Amino acid sequence: MGKEPSGEFEYSRGLEGVSAAISAMSRIDGDDGILIYRGIPIEIMAENSTFEEATYFLLFGNLPNKKELDDFTTEMKEYRKLTSEEIEWIKNFPKGGHPMDALKTCVSYMGMEEPPPPGEKQTLRGFTKNGKKIIARLPSFVAAFDRARNGKEILQPDNSLPHAANFLYMLHGEKPDEESAKILDLAFILHADHGMNASTFSTYVTSSTLSDIYSSIITGIGTLRGPLHGGANERVVAMLQQIGSPENAEDYIMKAIKEHKKIMGFGHRVYKAYDPRAKILKDYAKNLAGKEESKLVETAIKVEEIMMREVSKKGIFPNVDFYSGFAYKAIGIPTDLFTPIFAVSRVSGWVGHCIEYRQQNRIFRPRAIYNGPIDVEYTPMDERE
């Protein structure tokens, strides 16, 4: 018996530190807590941009002039509308189904309504157009599913509203106030792209086979559904509700540290400094929190204070999930829609990366290091114990 030597190939568990593609879309400097979209710091984008403009920038590589942005926004509004077949399909989804499963199914159905040509017959222009359709319609799917499962009428989009504000309208049935629309638009911008994360990589892999953009985005949604990637902000809110008040934070956190338990919303695979997105969301979350959420915010601030004191020297800081949950709760978004909203945001990055990679495509084919036995004899059935 022998084993294939593990040193024959380089190995990185979870592909940590492995560069799998070259991209001009976003860059993360984890040591200094810097995130840029195509050269522009995320702080500048958050302060000055909109999700529509940020999406155009990520997809096409230049900040649009007024006509380009107006044309792009108009096109995206045309793609928001749900077909009658999609509405009937969503009405028949299991009411207790997970929203991320509903989202995967909606994108799959959307691809079946207008199937793209196979493989190499797909033009980049057609691939891009279908990607824009997905970006535009994902919020409509999420809002429609939530209303259907709650026995409410599914609404069509209001094209007088921007992307984020329209989602809140379709979800709640009334036009949002300016502050709520702003915080959601901001969150969409902050989550739009983030380098080679797990879900983005999975869309790369699917797209590299020359599969269609619908299949690639379904792959991304499925990857994001996992609790180690999406859903962390849900667990942050649950943790803070369990702590209950700022007065309980010290005992809870110190006990968790002693028992080596993970504190949700802290630490990041890439950032060894304060996540710049968390800094931006922190002030908005504090300003938006009403009486119902004020204790959560106060508890969060206390938790951050304790964690900064205890573990910041180890490079553990708040990440974007620590404050995004409060923002969503404050504008009336159900907790189990937090991860679908992540998908609604990140889909701009997924589509952009697929378009970019498609232009110099090479199918992904990594290797696994075999560490099993060699030359095992086959035992006939009647000789096996």
Write a compact overview of the structure shown:
With 385 residues, the protein is mainly α. It has 2 domains: 228 residues, Citrate Synthase, domain 1; 99 residues, Orthogonal Bundle (Cytochrome p450-Terp, domain 2).
Structure description:
The chain is mainly α. The protein has 2 domains: 26-228 and 334-358, Citrate Synthase, domain 1; 232-330, Cytochrome P450-Terp, domain 2 (Cytochrome p450-Terp, domain 2, Orthogonal Bundle). The protein has 16 helices and 3 strands. Strands 1-2-3 form a 3-stranded antiparallel β-sheet. Helix 6 (124-149) packs parallel to helix 7 (163-172), helix 6 (124-149) runs antiparallel to helix 16 and helix 11 crosses helix 15 (320-330). The chain is globular. Mean pLDDT is 92; it is low at 1-6.
Question: What keywords describe this structure?
Answer:
mainly alpha; Cytochrome p450-Terp, domain 2; 385 residues; globular; 2 domains; Citrate Synthase, domain 1; three-stranded antiparallel β-sheet; disordered N terminus; 16 helices
